[in-house]
Amino acid sequence: xxxxxxxxxxxxxxxxxxxxxxxxxxxxxxxxxxxxxxxxxxxxxxxxxxxxxxxxxxxxxxxxxxxxxxxxxxxxxxxxxxxxxxxxxxxxxxxxxxxxxxxxxxxxxxxxxxxxxxxxxxxxxxx
Length: 127
Fold this sequence. Notes:
This protein is an all-alpha fold. 58% of the residues lie in helices and 0% in strands.
């Protein structure tokens, strides 16, 4: 049975505005997304897309290519949201790990920005 989102969309385990609450809220949204809740995934996107684009721009010098990486990243995140708990990473770290790995595996990116020299083994780790 799929979990249902709280009416206000907020995680209740930690006081609002704390890093723990933010992580808990993002993790909760991924849990809902893993059960097919598109609204929860859209909220996860809204809360993380600026960080994802910044990370993509650090990896890829072309702004259009960075946008393509971010689109691919979120498509993959939607498809693999159920793997987040097994990754051992915070929700944002889990998401952003995919930027570097996708960029390294994709033509038109600048892998020198990441300090890496080859495609990553798999994304997300632990999936």
